[in-house]
């Protein structure tokens, strides 16, 4: 449900504003209307500085040298490093230097590799030979292309030969005519030892810079605190800048919202401050921020509502309705009891080992439990058909879905039935919500469609079950059609020209007829995804069984089966989870929200408060 909000209008002297905003910051429960972007150079500067700290924190969190071959040297360098001053700037400098050093190291190692065949030589000695009129030319050719007779024609010295290539030089007088069948190569710029020494120095500097980063990582808590302070300053500045100045800029007027449950507490705080304020119940026209209040089960699915958009202030919160449906849709798409157990195990791991994702653990646990029971109902466990397993009790097999209904697979009929029920619930939700917001008079058309569709489904169900005689069903349906028709075609917009109402009703009829059919058929995806996942899991089981039968080695055949089973089902679980999240989300956002009339254009409650600095 949507938490009731109280609207506060504050009128302050300009000199009172700073202290008032600081007090709101400490309270952390009042949502002050903010500017949607930095309003001037000051806020822009705060934002840029906060971004630099966030980047530094993120980089340091990734700085892990436990597997680095120079780990001990890096830790020693970290012990000697003592970063001071602006820690974000020190981090940025170290990261920039490290990136440049690594590029230089790559280039120097490449150069060292190119110089290695030439061995050690003195560039000055070569230059002195040139001064004496002698020219040294450098060559490299493939071993099969090298001709020993070249040494008979020119003074030639082989420098290196690795069996594949030959490196050699020729020495001739500068002024003497010279002709050689191979093109010269670039002369090395220095000795191989020189390049190796330069690479060693660069590596030492890389270790030093990594040591600085490792040392800075020890200041993460301090850096996060500074980042949080900057976020708080920015939030505070934007909230303060949102105040409306009045009376020649001597007064500031602020609008804020807080949950009505805090009225007494906030009244004491504001009275103690001695400020002038007006508290009144927030209305839909005030466009107050939205804070949802649900039980533990529905609260897990609030993230789905937030993904689409928060409800309007007087709009119903759809979370308690969409939560059970999403759970059911997800479980049907997974459709395997074994996969449900895997999800339960993952939720336990997230809760105990992955602190950053611990909040998702209850949702994953719930989805896993739902998948397990639906998987039992569908008769599938890691791709195996439970109906064909001998040790499963007969009473449990009778609870499993099997066979056909009217010539169609029972699972497909179940998916269509769930879709019809989902659409009926959405239409009732829409009728109740619109009546609450706009009144009964303005929603007669909506109630007409709800009565016709939902009443028709209920009436059809009772007829199929034989609970009513067909003659009775006929007259009840006629009565439904007449009452619904009046709302759909005559009273859909009270006070409007009746002919316009009839035309609008006919247009709605076309849209409803085509839309409801498409929406209902869309739920076949629940059956299709569950079937595809089950068939893929069964295929991996079959492949593992074939390899196990084909392998004559007793232990190896079970090992091969285990590898195929684990890898195959891990891949299938990943694919199934993706489909089981995306498609139920689509059914919720399109089919349910469209038929429920949900708008989702509200803004989330975001009180002015001290930020924790997590980057």
Overview of this structure, please?
Among the domains are: 38-109 and 194-222, no CATH class; 122-187, no CATH class. The protein has 21 helices and 12 strands. The chain has 615 residues and is α+β, with helices and mostly antiparallel strands. The mean pLDDT is 83. Strands 1, 2, 6, 7 and 8 form a 5-stranded antiparallel sheet that branches. Strands 3-5-4 form a 3-stranded antiparallel sheet. Strands 9-10 form a two-stranded antiparallel ribbon.
Overall shape = extended
Give the number of helices. Answer: 21
Rg, Å, rounded: 38 Å
The number of strands is 12
Distance linking N and C termini: 31 Å
SSE-based structural type: alpha+beta
What percent of the residues sit in helical stretches (DSSP H or I)?
Answer: 55-70%
Kindly estimate the percentage of residues that lie in beta strands according to DSSP. 5-15%
The major pleated sheet works out as: 5 strands, antiparallel
Quick take:
Among the domains are: 101 residues, no CATH class; 66 residues, no CATH class.
List keywords for this structure.
615 residues, five-stranded antiparallel beta sheet, 21 helices
Question: What's the SSE blueprint?
Answer:
Layout: E1 5-13, H1 17-27, E2 31-32, H2 41-62, H3 71-80, H4 87-115, H5 123-131, E3 134-142, H6 150-153, E4 156-161, E5 165-173, H7 192-217, H8 220-241, E6 244-246, E7 251-259, H9 263-273, E8 276-281, H10 296-299, H11 302-308, H12 319-334, H13 337-353, H14 361-378, E9 380-381, E10 384-385, H15 394-398, E11 404-405, E12 408-409, H16 410-438, H17 444-464, H18 470-490, H19 498-522, H20 524-550, H21 554-596
Helix pairs in contact: 1-8, 2-4, 2-8, 3-7, 4-7, 12-14, 12-20, 12-21, 13-14, 16-17, 16-19, 16-20, 16-21, 17-18, 20-21
